[in-house]
Design brief:
UDP-N-acetylmuramoyl-L-alanine:D-glutamate ligase; six-stranded mixed β-sheet; 8 helices
Length: about 270
């Protein structure tokens, strides 16, 4: 039996809680082999992003070709890609290798509040990357930014924004409600055939660093294993909810700590 392989194309997080590092941890926790293409390097920790170093587009291309020419990649997660040339290189690589099952997490702002996406790259995400995706996973601020619209607060407005994002050409939209209010955290899976609401208890913790990265990676892991999109989304939602619930066990850093990717394997006394 060959282990399923998923690829993350994203930025590196030096503190290990988000980006490439979170993606690879999530892949491992979900039972798939993880490969990576680093599109940017960040100097960051749980308190913020201090610097970003862009990886040249030709080197992103070299990484993509190296992975796809050798590994049987079944799903791709695209995360933090902050410059237009990088986006162009990624889209060209996906097309060149005819890769499907692309999950796009349109990362724009870190948990700490630091902006990660250059303004001139927003249009490239909207017009080039989103149409290539089987699923996009924006949170409420990201959805508003992609649509140049006010932040949605009511359920009807959220779903309407999700439908507008769907019209940009992706296969489905998972609009994440973690930035909302109420006792439940509701996500909305929006497809042409309808809307599925996914609810989980809202967990009171500041340790949510890497939540979005990990959710989208868990979905890609499910797709790599051959699951349907809805099953992959449901299982990923359950995974990240449990990882957030266990986050306070880690006590990492002085700011927004990471979620507990390996909560299911944790043998430390409690």
């Amino acid at each position: 039996m060959t282990i399923p392989i998923a690829l993350t194309i994203a930025g590196s997080d030096s503190s290990g809680g988000a980006g490439i590092q979170a993606d690879l941890k999530t892949f491992a926790a979900c039972g798939v082999y993880g490969a990576s293409v680093i599109a940017a390097l960040t100097a960051q920790n749980t308190q913020g992003v201090n610097a970003i170093h862009q990886v040249p587009a030709d080197f992103i291309t070299a990484q993509i070709d190296a992975v796809f020419s050798d590994l049987d990649v079944r799903a791709v997660k695209v995360g933090m890609v902050s410059q237009r040339p990088a986006i162009e290189a990624i889209v060209a690589g996906l097309d060149r290798w005819a890769k499907g099952n692309v999950v796009v997490d349109p990362v724009m702002v870190a948990t700490s509040g630091d902006r990660l996406l250059a303004p001139d790259a927003v249009d490239a995400v909207r017009t080039m990357l989103i149409p290539r995706a089987v699923l996009i996973t924006p949170n409420l601020p990201e959805a508003a930014a992609l649509l140049d619209a006010p932040l949605a607060t009511r359920e009807g407005d959220l779903i309407e924004q999700g439908k507008r994002l769907l019209a940009l050409g992706c296969g489905a939209v998972l609009l994440k409600g973690g930035h909302g209010e109420g006792v439940e955290s509701k996500d909305y899976l929006i497809r042409e055939e309808g809307v599925v609401t996914l609810a989980a208890p809202r967990i009171a913790t500041r340790n949510t660093h890497g939540t979005g990265c990990s959710l989208s990676s868990a979905i890609a892991a499910g797709l790599a294993k051959g699951e349907t999109l809805e099953t992959a989304v449901r299982e990923a939602k359950a995974y990240i909810t449990a990882a957030i619930a266990a986050a306070d066990r880690l006590n990492v850093g002085h700011g927004h700590g990471p979620v507990h990717h390996f909560y299911a394997f944790d043998r430390t006394p409690r």
